[in-house]
Every structure is written in C-alpha cells, then in structure tokens.
Amino acid sequence: MTDWHLDQDLLDRYDRGDLDTGRVMAVEAHMLACPHCRFRVHVDVAWTTGNWAIVYDAVHAPRVGPAQRLLTRLGLPEHRVRLLTATPALRWSWLLATAAVLGLAVLAAVFSRDGTDRAGLLFLVVAPILPVVAVSGAYGPPADPMYEITGTAPAAGPALVLWRATAVIGAAVATAGFAALLLPAAGWYAAAWLLPALLLCTGTLALATSVPLPLAAGTLGGLWLAGVLGVTGFRHEPAVPLVFGPAAQLSYSLAAALAAIVLIRRRRRFDPGESR
Amino acid sequence: MTTVSIRRLGKRYGATTALDAVDLEIGTGVTGLLGPNGAGKSTLLRCLATALAPDTGSLRVHGFDPAVQHERVEVRRRIGYLPQNPGLYPNFTAYDLLDYVAVLKEITDTGARRAEVRRVLEEVELTDRAKTKVRKLSGGMRQRLGLAQALLGEPELVILDEPTVGLDPEQRMLFRALVSRIGEHRTVLLSTHQTEDVGALCERVVVMRGGRVIFDGSPRELAGVAEGQVWLSAEPPQGNAAYWRNADGLYRTLGARPAGGEAARPSIEDGYLLLLDSEATTAGAATGVAPTAGAATGVAPTAGAATGAVTTAGTAAPDAAGATTAPGVIR
C-alpha cells in the first residue's frame, strides 16, 4: 500500500487504451500494489465474466480428438458425437482385450507351421464374438458403474442403448477388420465373419430385453462356439463351406433381420423405469 | 405446493416386501427419510427417480406419472438423482463428467451446456477442481461432484440417497450447507440413517421401517416422541432398559425412569430409537410377544401398525421455549 495514487487523467487514458506499453506496465505495476487505484479502474463486469468463461472452458473442456472431428464432418451433431466418443473411452479394457485377441490370432496365422487353414478358421470363429463382448459392456450393470445416473437421465432408454451399442460395435468391427487384412492369404473369408457378427450382436440386444445384457452376450457367444465346434469338430474342410458358405450367410442375414424386429418391438424393456 | 404424490405404493423382491402401501405427499424444502437398513428408503427413492418400477400403487412427480413412457421422460427432466453408489467414472475429470451427464440430460447446445457445467461446479464449490480426475478427488469432493451432476438442468426435485455416508465431520458440514441452500427453492428428498443429518437439514422427517411409513412430522416432533422418557442418572439402570454412558460419565436411559434418574431433554435420536422400539413392540404384541419398553413408556402403540392402516396422533413435544408444537403423526 502506498500514499501516492494515479491521477485521474492517467487512469482515464489507461481505460481508453491510449497509453504506450511502458506506461501501461507502470500503471499495472502500481495497481498490483495499490487496491485503492485498482478499484478506481472501470470494470465491464459482463465483458470480464464472458472472457473468464471462455478462458475457463478453453482450459477445462474436453479436448476434441480425431474421432470426434471425423464424426462431426460426417454430419453428426456435437452432443451425439460426445456420447459416442465418450462411450468407448469408458471401455479401454475391452478395446485392448479385443486388440490383444486379434493380435494373437494374426500371430498364430503368420507363424503356424501347418499352413494358414486352422489359424484362419480360428479367426473366423473368434471374430464374430468380439463385437458381442463389446456390446455386453455397452450398457447397464455391471459394465457401467454410472448405470443408475445414466438410466434415470431424460436421454436414457432404448435410443441410448442402441447408440452406445453402435459405438462399441463400430470400434470392435474396425479392429477385427484391420486384423483380417493382416492375415496371410486372407481371401474372401477375411469378411466372412461380418454377418455372423451382425447376427450375434442383434441377437444379443434382442435377448437382452428379457435377461441382463452380459448373460445374453454370454449365452449367444457360447451357443455360437458350441455350434461351430459341434458341427465341424474344428476341422477346416467341412467348417468353412458349412458355417461360412453362401447358404449359411443367407441364413445369418435372415436371422439377424428377425432379431432386429424383436429388438424394435421390445426396445422399451431397456428402460429401467419400465414395468416388467 | 406438492411436488411428489405417492399413493399405496408397493414393491416386492421375491418374498421380501420392500415397500408396503406407502402414502406420502412431499413439497418444497428438505424432507428426510430416516430408517434402519432394509427399511425401504432406497427402494422408495429409486421408484421416484424412475430407476425402478413399483409393483402396485401410484406415483406422481409434478403431476406426471412415471409408469407412462412419455410422462416418465417428463419426470426425468424435472429430477436430479444422486444414488447411494453413484459410480462416477474414475478416469473422467470433474468437468468431463458433468459435460457428459449434461448431454444425457438433453442440454445439447454446447455453449449452454458449458455454462451449466460452470454453474453447478460453482454451486458445489468445485470450480478450482474442474481439471482433477474423479479418482483423485477426496470422498467429500466426489460426493459434491455427485451432487453437482444431480443439479444439472436445475431440477425441481433433488433425490439424494444416503449422501453423507463416509464423509468426515468437516465435509459433512459443508455438504449439509450445500443441501440446505438447494432446499430453499426446491424439493429435496434425502435418505439417511444419521439423525444428525435430519436435525441439521430437514424441515420434515419421515421414518420408515419394514417398507412402511411409521412417522411423519418435524424433527422436533420426532424428538417429542421421547418426551418424559429420557433420563440421566449416576448409576446404570436395573433391568433391560436401553442406556449408554455419555461424555459426562452419566447414564442416559430411554424408557422407564431408573432409580435416581433426572429428566433430560430428548434428542431426535432418542425419539427415533423409541419409535423403532415401539414399532417392534407393536409388531410383537400383534404376534403375542410380550411388550417391552415402548408400551410401558406411553408411546402410542398403533394397533394398525400390523396392517399399516390406522393412524394415531403422537405425543405433543415442547419446543425450545417450552411451548407445545403440533404433534407429528405416528402411523
């Protein structure tokens, strides 16, 4: 605190921005030490508050990543992009697990001694299950610790479940698709797992209108594995045409469409506030 | 003004009755739900928060019925809910988490959403912690963040399930001050089993046990339930009366007067304990078990307690100046 204070003319020129840099620095240095002069400076509260808000948000608001920019360019509204990109961010564990399993499958294919057949079949059988595992963590307990808060928000309900499921299925399919490209002599079967994956995902969601999501995912994933092993005995020759041939793919499409109808008709069951 | 209207609400989990024909009207201010574990407090709050559908009865929040799908959305637009285990994502920063919940609460405009996040952070005094990850916040701060997410969108009804559990005294005091401010213009319904919370915060207290409402009145009226039944004595009482030794080395006895006992001013906890005791007594009487302290102490035993149908006026309680206040309702 000092007994000397800025004269009014100097303060007015400071307010108007008429001072050179050296004088501005001198005035501000004085004001730092002199509350009396500090409070004589005109303050535009609205301007200060507005700027403070801008600075605060710039420092604290979530960073916009490449995925968010891409989805925004594709035309999705900002709030929807926020929901989609936040969802996989909750689930690094399954994304890493998916990548690890696929990485191992690719390594097995590359280094297998008896050719790529068995490794390719392993990939085809495992890949459809990965999106289902992702879906099982998309909504509800125990995967989502904030389930009660999420489930009682106005945006809760079937739409949120389907948006979240889409986000995680997209991430899992992209990972599996990338792994398929790395398979040696991948051929047509690099994409043969996609329709079974679609069926298992829609089937899981449809079944989840009656039982908890993880149970639905476990049941259908288990049935898929048991079915493939039961039919083929894990031998490549009968398995690929039987389980992944054109007739099988057609039946997967029809079954997926049926599951989608069930899902649409029973979608309200995803709301925790709905009577059972 | 009535915010919440509950009529004959019932909920069962298998063979267990969680809610048994609950009737309540709740308006602006802070209302406390008090009761032991398993009393049905959380089930009632979850039904109100639309996290759970009741089996029987009806529920209205601001006139909207959560059983009807499109009205349920209207209810959700008007409530803020802090569950007992909010499970806030540990790797989110406080700002990210609130921004995410704000999207779920349909605040879709980016500018409006950020202004709302800043507002609630300031309201719960976490403005300087916006960049801190949830896992690095103290228990009290995490609970305030939970409260902040409940306040997003300025809900008219705020539902808090055991919000002060696990907080140290300083954090609890801060949390109470926040809730008290919020309750000035909104309806706040909080569950607790801490009678201190009720005394510090609530204008009205509803005591539940076994899925039923057994008392509805002011905290002072709840304390009044123990009027004339709280004693201080130098020696412990004989028999099986409930008593404990206080900080002054005197024995505080509830129920019949012990030898050498002097009457003491009843606390909310005294009233609550005697109320639960009288409830046990009433239930016991209905099943042929001999009544204990409750019946002997003059707390009105409610014959209807066995069925939850009959309502009996409670005892009048003297206030701080010695005047008599209106009685609470023991059901």
UniProtKB/TrEMBL annotation, chain A:
Keywords, sorted A to Z = Membrane, Transcription, Transcription regulation, Transmembrane, Transmembrane helix
Q: Which residues cross the membrane?
A: 92-113, 119-140, 161-182, 188-208, 240-264
Keyword Membrane in annotation: yes
The family database entries (InterPro entries) matched by this protein are listed as:
Anti_sigma_zinc_sf
Keyword Transmembrane helix in annotation: yes
Name recorded for this polypeptide: Zinc-finger domain-containing protein
Gene source species: Actinoplanes palleronii
From TrEMBL, chain B:
Task: Alphabetically list the UniProt keywords.
Answer: ATP-binding, Nucleotide-binding, Transport
Q: Name one GO molecular function term.
A: ATP binding
Q: Which residues form the ABC transporter domain?
A: 4-235
Q: Which is a Pfam family this sequence falls into?
A: ABC_tran
Query: What protein name applies here?
Result: ABC transporter ATP-binding protein
Organism of this sequence: Actinoplanes palleronii
CDD domains per the record?
Answer: ABC_drug_resistance_like
Q: Which SUPFAM superfamilies match?
A: P-loop containing nucleoside triphosphate hydrolases
Q: Which family does it belong to?
A: Belongs to the ABC transporter superfamily.
Q: Which InterPro entries match?
A: AAA+_ATPase, ABC_transporter-like_ATP-bd, ABC_transporter-like_CS, P-loop_NTPase
